Amino acid sequence: QVQVVESGGGSVQAGGSLRLSCTASGLASPSSIMGWFRQAAGKEREGVSCIGRSSFTTYYADSVKGRFTISRDEAKNTLYLQMNSLKPDDTAMYYCARARSTAAWWLLRAENFYDWGQGTQVTVSS
User: Distance between the two ends of the chain, CA-based, in angstroms?
Assistant: First the structure.
């Protein structure tokens, strides 16, 4: 089975940056549709960004456009999320997951994603 592990979270002041990493093992292909989601305390899980089989196809939630960048290293089966200009509202547990090609993954809906990692905590202070 696929195992997904996120890392790179931590505490940072507003305006700072973090880069999250997601390593997936057990994938049949080095290229998969992957996404980043986050869930703040007491709130629903929301989509942050996703990347298609082609790394040139990416989607972002309006709340992070211009600040976050999703990328991948297929050789390492690793997904990245570069987060700049962080805000307190970005505080959440961040999760990595993959989507089936038949799902509407570009809509960034959690129900279309599978093989969730354990998450990595991001805390942004004022």
Answer: 40
How far is residue 40's CA from residue 94's CA, in Å, rounded to a whole number? Answer: 9
- Would you give per-residue pLDDT tens digits along the chain (126 residues)? 889 999 999 999 999 999 999 998 887 766 789 999 999 999 999 999 999 988 889 999 999 999 999 999 988 889 999 999 999 999 999 999 999 888 899 999 999 999 999 999 999 999
Give the three-class secondary structure for 112: helix
> How far is Cα 76 from Cα 15, in angstroms, rounded to an integer?
29
Three-point CA angle 124, 66, 86, nearest 5°: 10
Q: Which residues contact 28 (CB under 8 A, 6 or more apart)?
A: none
Q: How many CA atoms lie within 13 A of 69 on its CB side?
A: 11
